Amino acid sequence: TQYTRTGKFMQWINYRVRVQIADPSNCRFFVGTLIAFDKHMNLVLADTEEQRKIKFKLAPEEAKGDPVQERDIKRPIGLVIVRGDSIVSMSAEASPNLGIAKEVGGGIQ
Q: What phi-psi label fits residue 62: left (phi over 0), alpha (psi between -120 and 50 degrees) or beta?
C-alpha cells in the first residue's frame, strides 16, 4: 500500500507531540495535542506548552567550573498554529490512549 504524506500524518492526530521550532538557538519546543494539519504541514496544537532552554553566564564568584548555565523555561500557550516551514522535527510524547511514545525519524520530510 502506498501512503501519501497526508495519510502518514493522519496517524498522529490526537497524539501529544513535541515539535522543535527553527530558531537561532534550536532550543525551542512546543508540546501539545495535534488536532489538525494541512498540505503545507502547518500544525494546529491544543493545550500547548512552550519549552525553551536558556543559556546564561554566571558571575565569576558564583561559577564553580563551568560559567555557563542552562535553564528550562516552560509557559502554557493553549491553542497554537505552527507554520510548517519552521518545523525542524516532531516526536510523540504520548499516544491518545496508551501513553506510549514513538519518534518520527529525522522529523518531517
A: alpha
